[in-house]
Amino acid sequence: QVQLVESGGGLVQPGGSLRLSCVVSGTIFSIFTMAWYRQVPGKERELVASINSGAGANYLESVQGRFTITKNNAKNTVYLQMNNLKPEDTAVYYCHAKRDPLQYWGPGTQVTVSS
Question: Residue 32 carries which DSSP code?
């Protein structure tokens, strides 16, 4: 059974940093495209960053230069380093694994940016 478990969310002041982690079990982690999505109430879930099996990364324009997605295949873990956080980054962040036709989601972790 494939499981994704996020951690690292929390409350941070504007300008602060957080690092999210997502541990994947039950599958061959290295062949999946991994991604972080976020969602706020009343809005659609949006793609924040993704990293493919070759470590090529893509970012939502509004987080470019502030967020960095990386992965460690030996630890079956994908990370999202978030710097210079803004109140508009407040959301539930979800880890996502995809290799067509398969895809999996984590339960999410709350990130709140507030003074």
Answer: S
Q: How far is CA 2 from the centre of its chain?
A: 17
Residue 28 has pLDDT above 90, yes or no: no
Contact between 13 and 114 (Cβ < 8 Å): yes
Q: What is the pLDDT of residues 36-84, one digit of tens each?
A: 999 999 999 999 999 998 889 999 999 999 999 999 999 999 999 999 9
Rounded distance, CA 90 to CA 44, Å? Answer: 14
Q: Largest alpha-carbon pair distance within the chain?
A: 42
| Residues 6 or more apart in contact with residue 33 via CB below 8 angstroms | 50, 51, 52, 53, 97, 98, 99
